[in-house]
């Protein structure tokens, strides 16, 4: 999750809502991503989406059942949908997103085989997002 | 919708589940996409996602509130999530997807301002998908 947080900090530095994600396979990072929706002017450029595409390219397979994703914020519905299709093995998210997190829509959006964990580096991830919006308002 | 169906037929010819989408702004097609998840080995390469990215690139804006999407199959949760973020003005889908369509998860996944219509070229779009899976089984 430290590596995902590093990705989130890169988003922060580039003026993007600071969310970062990594995909791990056999204890090795095979995909990284941070939110780039402003830079690319593309709503699909969420951290998770970029990390999934990157990991799938690395493996040459669209299925990531043997992988774990670490992401600093609870995935939105779009990203949960992508995690479903990829059949991601495990998803660890740091902070919950009480507004746009997928649990607000349906708790069963991930693949039935996907294991979900939350809370690691929760405070650091939340603080980063709060700092971003505080800075934005100033 | 005829143009979306043309995109779906291109997917069919390339051995992909035949779904196509176009984004229209001011009566002009500004984004096209057909399912390329097999070719790219990337679950995020759904027709709608590619068409959204393409339209946003064309406009230089991630918001597509003034646009309409025509898609041959009801969007899945991932694509509905992307349509939400893009604030797509109108969504027209041909065939319903009783298994993976976003209505199976939550009917309120699109942006509250998005208008949704369905049924245009429903039979042609359904037939194309059924033919694809029939051919696959043979």
UniProtKB/TrEMBL annotation, chains A, B:
EC category name: hydrolase
Record-linked Pfam families: dCMP_cyt_deam_1
PROSITE patterns (alphabetical): CYT_DCMP_DEAMINASES_1 (PS00903), CYT_DCMP_DEAMINASES_2 (PS51747)
Repressor recorded as keyword: no
Active site: 48 (proton donor)
Key words of the record: Hydrolase, Metal-binding, tRNA processing, Zinc
Required cofactor names: Zn(2+)
Reactions the enzyme catalyzes: adenosine(34) in tRNA + H2O + H(+) = inosine(34) in tRNA + NH4(+)
KW Hydrolase (keyword) present: yes
Enzyme Commission code: 3.5.4.33
Domain named CMP/dCMP-type deaminase: residues: 1-105
List of residues binding Zn(2+): 46, 76, 79
Family to which the UniProt record says this protein belongs: Belongs to the cytidine and deoxycytidylate deaminase family. ADAT2 subfamily.
Assembly and oligomerization: Homodimer.
Biological function: Catalyzes the deamination of adenosine to inosine at the wobble position 34 of tRNA(Arg2).
Protein name (record): tRNA-specific adenosine deaminase
Name of encoding gene: tadA
